[in-house]
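Example with several molecule types.
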Amino acid sequence: MRVRRRATLWSLALSVALALTITVSAGIGPVRIPPATVVRIVANAVVIPAGVEFGTAGVGPFALPRLGVAYRSPFAFPVDDVHRRIVVLVRLPRILLAALVGFALAAAGTVMQGFFRNPMADPSIIGVSSGAAAGAVAFIVSPIALAGTLWVPGIGAVDVGLSHGAGVSLFAFVGALVAAFGVYAIATRRGRTPVATLLLAGVAVQTFLGAVISYLQLQAGESLRRIVAWLMGHLSGASWSEVLIVGLAVPPLFLILLAYTRDLNVMLLGEAEARGLGVDVERTKRVLLAASALVTAAGVAFAGVVGFVGLVVPHVLRLVVGPDHRVLLPTAALAGGTFLVAADTIARAGATELPVGVVTAAVGAPFFVYLLSRREVYEL
Amino acid sequence: MSNEVSATGDCAPSETSAERPVVVRDLAVSYGDVTVVEGVDLTLESGSLVGLIGPNGAGKTTVLRAIQGITQRDAGSIRLAGDALETLSARAVGRRVASIPQETGLSFAFTVREVVEMGRTPHRGRFEGPNASDVDAVDSALARTGTAGFAERPITELSGGERGRVLLARALAQETPALLCDEPTASLDVNHAVETMDLLRRLVDDGRAAIAAIHDLEMAARYCDRVVVLANGRVRAAGPPDTVLGADIVHEAFDAEAFVGRAPATNSPTVTAYPPTDVTSHRVHVAGVGLGTARVVARLGAAGHDLSVGVVPDGDAAALVAADVGAAIVSVPPFAGVDEQARAAALDHVQRAAVVVAVTDGSGTVPVALRERADVVVDPTDPPTDEALLARVAAVSGSDT
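Resulting C-alpha cells for the full complex:
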C-alpha cells in the first residue's frame, strides 16, 4: 500500500535524523565529546537478558524462592568515566526529554490543526498550556509543601512527598487537564461539541488563565525568576525519572492518535461530510481531544510552555510530505523531537543558558517565514 | 398531510425494507425556536429518483441532513433499509446512505483517488488496509464517473465540474443503496449538469435509489420519477413531475408567477417563472398567432388572467401555450382558413372579455373584425416588456369598472 510505504520510509529517515541529532547533541557542551565516544557510551549501557537466575527473597521464615533475569552488557568499549557520567547522567536525560516533549507537542499540534482545520491551531489552543502554566505558577508561588516526614510504626521516620520540581510538574499536569476539560465542558451542549465553539471557549479560558498567571506573578516576589524560566520553557535539570514518566505516557497516546489518522483525514472535509462518510464525529472529537490534551500535558508538565514546536513543525512537514495524516502525524512527531533536541542544544551551548522556548521561537519563526515565502502553504 | 403516504403505512414489512432504502415519516426539525421542516413524509424506493424541490430555505438540505442523522430531529421517524436511524451507528448509516454535497470542504491537496478512497471509510476497520473489494469499489467508482483519467491529480487542481464528479465517485465507492444529492447540478455548466443527472439516472436504473435536492425545476421534471415540493418546511405536493409541476404549485411554493408548459425537445414540463405581480384577474381575450402571441398568452396566464385565445390554427405555438395555461381556445385545422363557426365563437369570447389584446402579424395590421374592439395592440416585432403589457391590460380593465 502506497501510503503505508511512504509513511514507513519517511518515518525511518526521520528516525535516523533524530538519532543522529541526539548523538551529536550529546557531545556538545562545555566538555566536547566526539560522537563516536557517545555511541560507545550508549552501547556500553545496553543490557540484554542473559539468562535466568534463582535466589531467595525475604528473610527467615518468610523467605521465598525468587526467579530473576540476569542481564549482561554485550559491549565493553573503553571510555573515559567522566565522559560516561556527563553523557549518561547529565546530557542524555535532558536530550531524551527534549526529544519526547518535541515529539509530543508536534504530534498534538498536527492533530489540532487538522481537527480545527485552522492553520493557527497548536496544542495550546484548548487551554492545555495555559492550564499547565497556571498550575505550575500557582505551585511555585504558594507555600504548599508536598513533602514531609511520616512516622511509620515499625520502620521509623520516612520521608515522603514530592520534590519541588516534581510538585511543579504535577500541578502543571493537573492544571493542563483541568483547563482542557473545562474548555471541552464549556463548548459541549447536548452531547455536541461544535469546533468553532471549542475554539472560542479555548480563547476565553486562555485569556482568563493569562490574567490569573499575571496576578500570581505580581504576587510572586522572589520566585518570579523561576516562574519566568518555567513560562519560557526549560529542559535543564531533566532527570531519568522524568524521561521515564514522559516516555511511558507519550507512546501509547501517540498510538491512539495514529489509529485515528484516517478519521482525521475525513474530518478535514468538515463535520457534516465526515458524518456522511460514516465517521462518528463526536466520539472521534472526544478521543482526539483527550489524547492530544494528555500528550500535550505530559510534555509541558516537565518542559514548561515550549512554544512554536506544535505550530510550525506540522506546517513544515505538511509542505514536505503532504496533508495525509497517516504520513504527516508520525513524520511531524519525529521532526518535532529532532527540532526540540537541536533547539535545546543551541539553548545550552552558549555561555549562558537560554530558555529553550526562546530558541524555538527565534529559530523557528524566521525559518517558517522563509518557507512561506518560498512555497504556497496548503490552505487549512 | 402528504398525499403520498402509501397504503402499507408507517411500518414497512421487513421483506420490502430492502426496496425502500429511506422512509421518512412526519419529520420535524427546528433550529432553536425556528421550525425548519414539519410533517415531512418521504419514501424512497429502489430504482427511483426523487427530486426534492422548493424555494431557498424551504428545508431541502435540512431533510437530507436529517436522513443522515447529521441534524437532530424533533419528531418523526426515519428508517434506513428498514432500521430506525437512531438504532444505527454512524458507520452503519454510512453503509446505507451516501451523500453528495454541493461542495466539499476539502482544500487539501489529496489526490482524487485518495478522496474517493475516503468513501470506503464505513467499510474498513480502523487498522485494516484496503482489501480487494475496497480497491474494486474505488476503481469502478472512478470509471463510472469518468474521473479515472485524473485519479492521481490533487483535487485542489480540478475544476468545479470535475470536483463534483469526484464527490459523486466518493459516494459511489460507499456502495450504499441510497444516494442523497444536495444540488448536484448547482455549480455545473449545462453540459456537466446533464451528464451528472444522466449518470444519476443510470445509477438509479441499475437499482439504486436517489434523492436530489434540486432547484432546477426542468432538470427535476426531466430526470426524476417523482418530485416532492417543499415550501415553508412542509410538503406541498408529491408525485410524478407531470402531475405535480403545475403553475399553481410553482406559484404557491415559490411565490412566483409561472408558466408551465412542455418542452418540445424532451416532452417534459418546462417552467418559466416571472416575478410576482399584484394583478386582479379579468377575462382577457387574445387574438393572434405565432410565438409573439404565445409569449403574451404565457405571461397573462401566469399572472392569473382568465384567458381565451383565438382564432388560432391547431398546433400553432399560441395554441400550445394557450392549452398549457388552460385558456379557452378557438382553433381551426392548419391552413383551413377561419370558418364562420370559429369566427362566431371567437367573437363570443371577445364580447364577454373585459380586455381584448390583439397581436399583429408583424406588418402592424390588426384583423378587421377586431379593429373596433382591440383594447391593447401588441406588435411582435417591437413587443412591450412583460411589465408594460400587464400594466396596459390593467389600465383597460380599470377604466371599464
